[in-house]
Amino acid sequence: MTIGEYIATLKSNRMTGFSTMKIVTSEEMRQIEQACSSIGLPPEALMEKAGKSIAEEVGRILGDVNRQRVLFLVGPGNNGGDGLVAARHLHDQGAGVSVFLAGRRPADDPNLRLVEERNITIIDASRDENLAGFDELLASASCVIDALFGTGKIRPLQGVFQQVLEKTLRAKEARGGMRIIAVDLPSGVDADSGAADPASLSADNTISLGYPKTGLFRFPGAERAGKLSVVDIGIPDYLADAITTGLTTDEWARSILPRRPLNANKGDFGKVLVVAGSMNYTGAACLACSGALRVGAGLITLATAASLLPVMAAKLTEVTHLPLPESEAGAISPRAVELIDQQSKDYDVMLVGCGLGQSQSTVDFVRALLLKQGLPALVIDADALNTLAITPDWWQRLPNDAILTPHPGEMGRLSGLEIAEIQADRTGTTRKFAREWQKTVVLKGAYTAVAAPDGRVMVSPMANPGLASAGTGDVLAGTIAGLRAQGCPVFESAVLGVYLHGKAGEMVRDRLGEAGMIASDLLPSLPAVIKQLKEQSQERNAAGN
Questions:
Q1: CATH number, domain at 512?
Q2: 3-class SS of residue 392
């Protein structure tokens, strides 16, 4: 399981006017907590709220807590303090709670005292010879809560910390029904880089406090986190306003979905010109056109090599066509630029690149087309990105409202970076080049990152190996173009397109599984996701009334 499969409890924050869940670094979290102290919210108050919220979320995850035996692994710092508060509240809810103190707590720790007053079983590692007491608690536990270490910088896990985590892992392997829940992030996972100590547990759930941490969206940490819940710990929203990295949520997506008035006609929902396809890649063009249609664009025209028209017309009943002159069978000639220039004024968006191929004549055509002035809003994908990569100073010659949709390999060719370097900091890399190029950049992959020229970044909460197949990127490019045509702003079109595409992938995975999912499976799920989001909004409005 990955954290993108489930976002449970979301806190509303503001980001450029929209309700957004922020993603924070450890330093940003430290600064927010310091700001809380300055406005009369001391660490003790945040810890009490955090522990209560953890207990409530654990109860939601486990169900009837009266039937659960929950073992808390408590460390020496604030993460351990949060665990102690949660242990107390979970005990008060009726769970069978025990605590293992893996690290020394302060002598006057009020949260430890409150746990002791409830006669909760506590075993101190310093007095537990050969960890026999821990073994006894672990043997009867139906759930283990990892509250050893949180966002602080930690040394490699050694000694008793390593031992109890390794014992917990073996117990999990022996009886898979035992659930592991991490507080804030699995102990040993770096809150910023996602680097994971070998002893770090692979949690079934991670309950992140206040805001999810960047390391939860970077591998290998992302694989250790399981399903993610983000719980409110009482931090005022405005203290995170300056943070420019957000996590896309259902709430945000609903606020961006284009409206569809009852008296609308197809012209109200925009026109997309898709320049795509070649002899070897007819499917890419069809998937891109269908993606734009399935998110509600009013009219789609496919501009492709004239000899491919019979194939395309048979596949695309609802699409109009603009046959283009060819340099050879199935390859668009540079002469086509003039024809597209004449026609493009009637369109709101032009998507270029899906399945165009990389013959020299096609490269010449793409370069001449993209660098021409007066084009509609651009979405640039696939082979058009590869052409840009071999075009000097291309970013200075493209309009600033262009949306680029590279996968890591294409991003490497555009930026000159190695793929490993890109993947090591997907968010930072996307932000850096969006600013440098002054373009909106969609870096595809697990937890797709979308960056705006002004430094904003939104991260998709989804990672789905089922989408790692040919054609899914073409559907995404069409989805973004279709939303842009309906009047969504540039950055929001890209973020919403990624989100709808990801949710459609999850819907297909739930129905078919990960293996064997194909790109065309996403198409009927796109309108289903939009319908689902709108129905949720209607239900919430009805509940509010």
A1: 3.40.1190.20
A2: coil
Q: In which residue are the tokens 């970013």 written?
A: 395
C-alpha 423 chain-centroid distance: 14
Residues 109 and 57 in one domain: yes
| CATH number for the domain harbouring residue 24 | 3.40.50.10260
User: Which amino acid would we find at residue 381?
Assistant: D
Q: Tell me how far apart the alpha carbons of residues 79 and 149 are, in angstroms, rounded to a whole number.
A: 6
Q: Are residues 141 and 214 in the same domain?
A: yes
Q: What are the tens digits of pLDDT across the range 479-524?
A: 999 999 999 999 999 999 999 999 999 999 999 999 999 999 999 9
**Number of alpha carbons in the 13 Å side-chain half-sphere of residue 92:** 13
Residue 515's domain spans which residues? 269-401+459-531
* DSSP letter, residue 161: H
Q: How many domains does the chain have?
A: 2
The position carrying tokens 């103190």 is 101
Which token pair is 404? 């680029």
C-alpha 530/C-alpha 527 separation (Å) is 5
Percent of the chain with pLDDT over 90: 89
The answer to whether the CB of 442 falls within 8 A of the CB of 494 is yes
- What confidence score (pLDDT) does residue 90 get? 97
Give yes or no for a contact between 444 and 460, defined as CB atoms under 8 angstroms apart.
no
Pairing of strands 326-328, 21-22: unpaired
What are the structure tokens assigned to 136, written together? 């006894």
Residues 148-182 pLDDT 10s: 999 987 778 999 999 999 999 999 999 888 999 99
What lies within 8 Å, CB to CB, of 50 at 6+ separation is 82, 85, 86, 209, 210, 231, 233
**Interacting residues of 263 by C-beta distance below 8 A, sequence separation 6+:** none
Task: Assign residue 199 a region (left: φ > 0; alpha: ψ between -120 and 50; beta: otherwise).
Answer: alpha
